[in-house]
Amino acid sequence: MSDFHAAHGRLYGLMAEFDNRYDLIEAAKRSHAAGYRKMDAYSPMPIHGLEEALGFHEWRMPMLVLLGGIFGCVGGFSLMYWMAVHAYPMNIGGRPNYSWPAFIPPAFETTILCAAFAAVFGMLALNGLPRPHHPVFSVPGFALATRDKFFLCIESADPLFQVEATRKFLESLHAKEVNEVER
Amino acid sequence: MPEEMDKELERPAVAIEDAEHPLIEPGHSYSTVTDHISAIVLTRKTPRWWWIGFGISFIVLNILLFSLGALVIKGIGLWGINQPVGWGLDIINFVWWIGIGHAGTLISAILLLLRQDWRTSINRFAEAMTLFAVACAGIYPIFHTGRPWLAYWMFPVPNTMGVWPQVRSPLIWDVFAISTYATVSALFWYVGLIPDLATLRDRARVKGAKIFYGILAMGWRGSARHWARYETASLLLAGLATPLVISVHTVVSFDFAAGIIPGWHATIFPPYFVAGAIFAGFAMVLVLSIPLRAAYKLEDFITMRHLDNMAKVMLATGLIVAYGYMMETFMAWYSGNEYEMYMMTNRLVGPYKYFYYALLFCNVAAPQVLWFAKFRRNVRTLFTVAIIVSIGMWLERFIIIPVSLHRDFLPASWGMYWPTVFDWSTFAGTLGLFFALMFLFLRVLPMISIFEMRTMVPPAEGRPRK
User: Fold this and answer.
1) 3-state secondary structure of A129
2) Does residue B85 carry a pLDDT above 70?
3) From CA B184, how far away is CA B234, in angstroms rounded?
4) Hey, is the C-beta of B10 within 8 angstroms of any chain A C-beta?
5) What is the rounded distance in angstroms from the CA atom of residue B164 to the CA atom of residue B177?
6) Chain A partners of B164 at a C-beta cutoff of 8 Å?
């Protein structure tokens, strides 16, 4: 039955449940060492070192925020320049129209604004959120992933994935329970 | 045991080093932390005091709507401002509210960067406080324009008149600073809420609540990849919010310091304003957290150590503010400028002298009791000092704004400023708005960050297998 699911692509993966984060980190490391790549871990709080254990490295986030900041800085300063020099030049106490030091505070604010937008919306976009439904939610007890339980899911898309062998492997990692995740 | 696990064990160990005054009382686990905090929102019966508190705030909020409605119909002549005092209670309250908001950002951003773990149980409602205080602050400059429906003219919006904002004025910098601050605070707050909203979604029993929190949680599932990006985003947001909060109150101080009025035209204003904002903000966090922890039995999470640390921050920033007062006085004398000297004489013996003495009592004398651990660890004393400081910081803005304006260079143009009933009702009304929003927040969202509290749980539970 299980192989039938896998063969017909109706199985998303196998989900192992753990009682604590140490077992989860250890399981993630051993799964990575065993050659599994398409997998993800689920935990009620951030666990330092877990993403490395899964072989995942995030490098796009800082770049996105830097780009957002540069855009905000250049864009903001150009806007101030254009408004004060071209669009609506005004003589304020005989000062030059291009009085750049006065443009720095508002340009600083637009820098922060755009960088913050990049951080928040970049994080959501890279995480693929909002996404109201996901196969993992169908696993019994997965609601505890936001309370006190820890999960590791090896996905059927992984080339090494074989229902019986992978299940045995996960059970050998001190998993409390291993469940099938239907797509 | 691998090295990474050692590191993993280290962090909570640092948090609980002070065994006598822990950040979280012993005996808590991931599940008890989750259940205790989410129960306030999901299962516990809404306490009677909540209904009373929210009811009163809501009535006072309606006074705000009435006052602002009358103001729009009649014009800002209803307020006591006129020549020579064009900035009165409206600007005082604007600066006061913005200042209160700054403690929330300080707790959530600066203390995060400094790895001060004790911030964890107070950051959520301090950030909520920021957001609601900024909402109250924003009302004042918008209605002070007299034609609030045209307030968007302050933004660079293409328009048929071909008019653009004059960006060399600190008042326009203020528009950029405050709107950025409000936006970034809201984003930071919401991002911080996402994992907890997922917890509430998964723990809600009522269908409506499941849908409500489900939509807000956006499908958060606690994936390790998501957490990695989430942590990066939070850290970068904290790094961005830190200079932002300093820039905001600096720009607010430029509104005054860039003017030539004696009592305003001082280079000490930016640091003095930022310190004053943190001073007032921590006072407000204490005013809110002391009754809250008693009412919701949160003494396990908001411990005496939190209150003690906040009292110390208040004492330190209070001393910076006192230094600011001292420097203002010294510079008035040292400048040798007769207008500057008169400004100081007028504060000391002029018609508003009792305001100045009250200010010195509230902001300089009263916080000195916080030098003693006995008073810092006595919630009643602490609460009283926090209230006195909140009043004192309001008085400070009264001294800086109308008292400087009412007697400037030309004695022929001197005058007095007294707020009208509409000034006071608008101020009371924003307090109503603030507390009404605060009560709603307490009822529908977790007031303590649940997922961050889980990271504070001592690692006794589930030691790694050898």
Assistant:
1) coil
2) yes
3) 12
4) no
5) 18
6) 83, 87-88
Higher pLDDT, A35 or B131: B131
Closest of B96, B164, B106 to residue B310, by C-alpha: B106
Residues of A in contact with B229 (CB under 8 A): 58, 61, 123, 126-127
- What is the tally of structural domains in chain B? 1
Report domain A2-57+134-182's class. alpha beta
Q: Which of A108, A126, A142 sits opposite B247 (nearest CB)?
A: A108
Predicted pLDDT of residue A7: 54
| Residue contact B218–A22, C-beta within 8 A | no
Q: A178 near A170, Cβ under 8 Å?
A: yes
Residue B464 lies in a domain: no
Mean pLDDT of the B113-136 span: 85
Please identify which residue in the block is written with the tokens 């300089």.
Answer: B364
> Which two three-digit tokens encode residue B50?
């909540």
Size of interface A-B (CB pairs under 8 A): 224
CA distance B403 to B406: 5
| Residue B116 in contact with partner chain A when CB distance is under 8 A | no
B191 CB neighbours in chain A (<8 A) are 120, 123
CA-CA distance, A117 to A65, in Å (whole number)? 8
Task: Kindly report the CATH number assigned to the domain that includes residue B446.
Answer: 1.20.1630.10
What is the nearest CA distance from B278 to chain A, expressed in angstroms? Answer: 20
Residue B463 lies in a domain: no
* Domain limits for position B378: 3-456
Q: Which range has the worst mean pLDDT, A36-50, A107-121, B251-265, B313-327?
A: A36-50
Q: What was the pLDDT predicted at B70?
A: 93
What pLDDT sits at residue B13?
A: 38
Task: Tell me the nearest-neighbour CA distance from A183 into chain B, angstroms.
Answer: 16
Half-sphere CA count of B322, side-chain side, radius 13 A = 16
The answer to whether B168 contacts A95, with C-beta atoms less than 8 Å apart, is yes
Residue range B188-216, pLDDT digits in tens? 899 989 999 998 888 888 888 888 998 99
Task: Report which secondary-structure segment, H or E, holds A179.
Answer: strand A177-182
Residue A56, Ramachandran bin (φ over 0: left; ψ between -120 and 50: alpha; else beta): beta
The pLDDT of residue B21 is above 70: no
d(CA B117, CA B140): 36
Nearest to B224 among A43, A83, A90 (CB): A43
Contact A112 B236 (CB under 8 A): no
Task: Classify A174 as helix, strand or coil.
Answer: coil
| Residue boundaries of the structural domains of chain A | 2-57+134-182, 60-126
* Within a domain: B462: no
Tokens for B419?
């707020």
Q: Tell whether B309 is covered by a domain.
A: yes
Residue A47 pLDDT greater than 60, yes or no: yes
Is the peptide bond between A46 and the residue preceding it cis, with omega within 30 degrees of 0? no
Residues B378-416: tens digit of each pLDDT: 889 999 999 999 999 999 999 999 998 999 889 998 989
